[in-house]
Write a structure and sequence with these properties.
By secondary structure, the protein is α/β, with parallel strands linked by helices. The protein contains 16 helices and 5 strands. The longest helix is centred in the last third of the chain and has 22 residues. The termini are far apart. InterPro entries: DNA_pol_HolB, DNA_Rep/Repair_Clamp_Loader, P-loop_NTPase.
Length: 328
């Protein structure tokens, strides 16, 4: 079970601030945990909630064994509410339901905590409703908003929260950690660019999808270089059947983005920065087909495709548009 000592090795500054607030019993009514994917926002929220609810806590450290701790781990603590996007966004009805739940007294204690994942994906109505909720906080209510970009939240919401920025692990350090766990360097380097969460990295590494996605990226680039007129057919017959949901599509696009990033590294005479280290010969061959500007344009097109997926644009349309842009 994760404890504050372990969390302090990953997020020392944020951990120290939260531990001090627990020891002094000065818990804010609202927090924003900001950090890129894999920095441990959810794990930190769960640990913080345990420390709030645990009746056997020593200083800030929860016991990880009592009923409250076990319920939080299993996701069924009655006074801890976890809100996630309904589809592509967090909707007004979800905040309305949250307000209704919080109008009742706590089931197990006088405290209530809610954690909102991807808080920046709230609709305008949901944001305004949450703002009113934050303006009149309950005496023992704590809100934790998780986001990769706090600037996407209303300024008035930001001003009512304590913003804590989680720092990413250095990719090189994380790569070394994965290698020490037995992963080959080629996989470890790629995974260190996809996530900085150890459990997620190990899970992805063992999935058949990961190997297929890497292969498809190389094949797509090869088709674009040698048979560009067949690229759309490749997308529909090879790419889309494997990328069956938005999460896989996002990860696959990130792998494609890293390929173009590697081409730019070669143009910048930075071969040691290459991510696809086992494909170095192919990458060097790609320089004959991709100018630096074209590789940069393609990288930006992939980033735009990732944003469109987040905005719930149909995946097939996103990939068709991206393919046509890369063909130019």
């Amino acid at each position: 079970m994760l404890n504050w000592a372990e969390m302090s090795t990953k997020q020392p500054v944020v951990s120290k601030m939260l531990v001090n607030s627990l020891k002094r019993d000065r818990i804010s009514h609202a927090y924003i945990f900001q950090g890129s994917r894999g920095t441990g926002k959810s794990a930190l929220s769960r640990l913080f909630a345990k420390s709030i609810f645990c009746k056997n806590r020593k200083d800030a450290e929860p016991c990880n064994a009592c009923k409250d701790c076990r319920r939080i781990d299993s996701g069924n603590h009655p006074d801890l509410h976890w809100i996630v996007p309904d589809g592509a966004s967090i909707k007004n009805d979800q905040i309305l339901q949250l307000q209704k739940e919080f109008s009742y007294t706590g089931m197990e204690s006088d405290r209530k905590v809610y954690v909102m994942e991807d808080a920046d994906k709230m609709t305008a109505n949901a944001s305004n409703r949450l703002l009113k909720f934050l303006e009149e906080p309950g005496a023992h209510t704590t809100a934790i908003l998780l986001t990769e970009n706090s600037q996407a939240l209303l300024q008035t919401i930001q001003s009512r929260c304590q913003i804590l920025a989680l720092q990413p692990l250095h990719a090189g350090q994380f790569e070394e950690l994965l290698i020490s766990e037995g992963l080959p360097q080629s996989s470890a380097r790629l995974l260190s660019q996809l996530t900085q969460n150890y459990e997620e990295a190990m899970e992805i590494s063992g999935q058949e999808w990961f190997a297929k996605a890497r292969k498809l990226v190389v094949q797509l680039v090869e088709v674009l270089e040698t048979r560009p007129n067949e690229a759309l057919l490749f997308i529909h017959s090879q790419w889309m059947p494997v990328m069956k949901d938005r999460e896989l599509q996002q990860l696959a696009l990130h792998l494609l983005l890293l390929w173009f990033k590697d081409i730019i590294y070669l143009y910048a005479d930075r071969p040691d920065s290459i991510i696809y280290i086992q494909e170095k010969d192919r990458l060097e061959n790609s320089l004959r087909h991709w100018t630096r500007q074209r590789a940069t344009d393609s990288l930006q097109s992939v980033m735009e495709a990732k944003r469109q997926l987040d905005q719930n644009v149909h995946p097939a349309l996103v990939m068709e548009k991206l393919t046509l842009q890369m063909q130019r």
